Amino acid sequence: MSTEITRGPVDKSIDGGIKYLDERYGTSGFIKRNIKKVFPDHWSFMLGEIALYSFIILLLSGVYLTFFYKPSLIEIVYDGSYLPLKGIKMSEAYASTLEISFDVRGGLLMRQVHHWGALLFVAAITVHLLRVFFTGAFRKPRELNWVIGVGLLVLAIFEGFSGYSLPDDLLSGTGIRIASGIALAIPVIGTYVSFLVFGGEFPGLDFMSRLYTLHVLIIPGIMLALITAHLMLVWFQKHTQYPGPGRTNNNVVGYPLMPAYMAKAGGFFFIVFGFLVLLAGLVTINPLWAYGPYMPDQVTAGSQPDWYIGWLDGGTRIMPNWEIVIAGIGTLSLNILIPAVVVPGIMFTLLALYPWIEQWITGDNRAHHILERPRNNPNRTGIGVMSLTFYGLLWIAGGNDIIAQMLDLSINDMTRLIRVAIFVAPPLAFVITKRICLSLQHSDKERLLHGDPTGRLLRLPSGEFIEVHEPLSDNVKAVLLARTELPMLQPPAEVDQSGVKTPKLWAKKLQHRLNRWWYVDQIPMPTIAELEAAKHHAVHELQEAQALGLEITHDLPEPTKSH
Amino acid sequence: MSSNEHNETDNQVVPVTQTSSEVRLPNSQLPLHVLRRADVDPIAAGRAERQVSIMFLLSAVFTVLATITFFAIPVDKFIRVPGAGVTQASNLALGVTLGLAIFLIGTGAIHWARKLMPDDEVIQSRHSYASSNQIRESVMQEIREGGIESGFATRKIVRRSLLTALAVLPLPAVILALDFGPMPKNELRETLWTKGMRLVTDPTGRYLRPEDFSVGSLVSAHPENLHAWEEENHNLNARAKTSILVVRMTPEQLRTSQGEGWDYQGIIAYSKICTHVGCPIALYEHRTHHLLCPCHQSTFDLADSGNVVFGPAARRLPQLPLGVDEEGYLVALSDFQEPIGPSFWER
Ligand code: HEM
Ligand code: FES
User: Fold this and answer.
1) What CA–CA distance (Å, rounded) separates A232 from A230?
2) Which stretches does DSSP call E strand in A370-464?
3) What value does the CA radius of gyration of chain A take, rounded to a whole number of Å?
4) What is the CATH number of domain A13-299+321-333?
5) pLDDT tens across A71-81, in order?
6) Which residues in chain A are classed under CATH 1.20.810.10?
7) pTM for this model (two decimals)
8) Residues of B in contact with A269 (CB under 8 A)
9) Can you tell me the ipTM of this complex?
């Protein structure tokens, strides 16, 4: 703003502060360059923000919990104020969690903020990842940030699981027991791994303090570093933007950081925080006093882990009981290794490598700053929906007992059903999604050529009926036309000019094949000639309509001047 | 360079070739900026200002209420809330007051930004991140030179010996980890059960007699010395292995058994620890004699040697041979004859 701003005492002290910092650290240059940095706006860009804010809230509430929580498995007799458990033997860890819940004012609130925050945190990361995937935001130059994001998701799951295990109630202890069973299943060294992790046999007395160090120091420390790197990269590379009027691959359209964007982002932190505190006050989460202390010989039926562990649990449930005993050598527990180690390992590896896989297939090595509409990349969208279907079925399998009961099926039938569906449904989801994308592409093309149907019919002198179409607004056109098309790759040459055989020819041939498959049924964008022809046609149509005395509510499109 | 058919020729950010769309784009401009009520109407602006400050003031009021709540409501007071059941009163009151105090700051700030702060969209251009070719070349040159000057590139022996030293250095880290726990000995094969050990109920510690069992009943039991062992060792390791389930069937119902004479008049005992990944098994269907693990639904047939009939578990439940001692109490005839619980490599 150019109006003269009168300077009060507050401004003077702010000025003083800026001068002080600048004389010592030269900060003003940096601030000058960034204070008006432009951020594009879209509701889906808030998903990452929610993840960030939940993380901060987890740090705050978690640190509070550390002041009371005792990571100790020493057995004591409970003597706190929760009467139903008075006189019962339990670990110090469980007793301290009861103390937080029933003897510390606001303690239960903090525990519940922490637990709801954890659920929201993982959910926000997951949906944020989906947004990035389906819009192609991971493409060059943002591949590294994608990998950091995948790393954060994996860490968040481990962090959540380790936190869930700290209270040492019956449910969480059962989770640890399962983890110990998975460790034992590792080929060759499994027994040793388990003995090292637990300091001997399960459960022992050591694992809780070790888990605690992981939960409050190591994992959050790494996450903090990764989140910082993640945000610095977003800052440095600038945010992507959705296609729209005025938006190109070389600009950013949005709102300057100072003041409105800052106020909105800051305000949104308080919204997320306030929401979590309200939720923690109103809705009980993880009422571990009702489960009782962990006892390795007790269990509750129908118990469910936190939502983000459900798919791992589900895979373990539907896996057939394959175990290979190699005579004289060892026992290979495929029934545990495949669902708990192999499949998740493959899933996360493919997820992390996806940007390079797609780049290899498309041969697209350009920088992209405009997001792609999911329909404009039917294969990617198909792969995404396919993977979600796979994940979703695993997740459903994690609740197969509950769902079977609801559907009045036997658990065995339910399990068999999912075993089949896990192979059939994902490819089906791919094909259906791809078809939907292509038909949306088709309708986009129709709209570009003919405009939007108005529903008004017109009878031409020839007796023919036509529907009057309204030309698209420039804003809509800008979105529809922002699609980028890539030429297909040329088939690889068998030999180069000097007659030397191309190295890794098979890989290049495979790449070429995949490349063809990737693009072959793409609906081509209308050519300039087609657009012009359509425009002339529309003009003609409208003129005819006018000649018939029809009232035209929109302007005739101007024929474009030839270039 | 195999796949880089569409590679950029230099390090400039080349605009994505929008094929023909750049030509076709209706001269691309920002949509017209629409003024808001508060931009043109001072009354609307004043109203927005009031709304924002009311939210901030309300937040302060809720903070005060939260403070009062903290002192006024004892932690051990529970109330019944319609729809939510019994909850801790202080949690509810603190959550609502504090939650609103925080939430209102957020809504106030966002309302302020949306109504009163400038909302013009701005265009900023992206700059190439890449440095000029010249700078890039000179960096490559300097690094190459550095390699030569240090001798890293040329002095093979120095380089290799350094790499060797660095490669073996992590070894101590692995070795240090070896004392995280003792090496496994026979722990996974042995439990507290021995010949003549009496069965006791949990947690009352009553000795079990055959007369305690009617056909179809299922009891969870432990060795009689478990309690003493736990008093001495202060951990749950033994409990995680010794726990058994005892059932009675009629001799006709009991089709097979893991050993000749391992039941006592139809009373049989199996390890309670699932052979999948170790959950305690809990659900018994006495009509089918199936035992279901609640964790991943492995199902074992107790009338048929504890074999797996469904689910991910691969091994049968180990059976504990039973008999009675001279005083008529149920006892184990030996330890389990196979490892209980999850599989492991050396099993
Ligand atoms: C960053 C992501 C984090 C996630 C996803 C997470 C998740 C969890 C979960 C699910 C629990 C169980 C809560 C319950 O129901 O009792 C928990 C407990 C706990 N967390 Fe975290 N946490 C995170 C960060 C932290 C941090 C940074 C700290 C401390 C510096 C911390 C300290 C604790 C403590 C002390 C407990 C045990 C107290 C109790 O359960 O009552 N957490 N965490
Ligand atoms: S632990 Fe029993 S089925 Fe998995």
Assistant:
1) 6
2) 452-459
3) 30
4) 1.20.810.10
5) 999 999 999 99
6) 13-299+321-333
7) 0.93
8) 106
9) 0.92
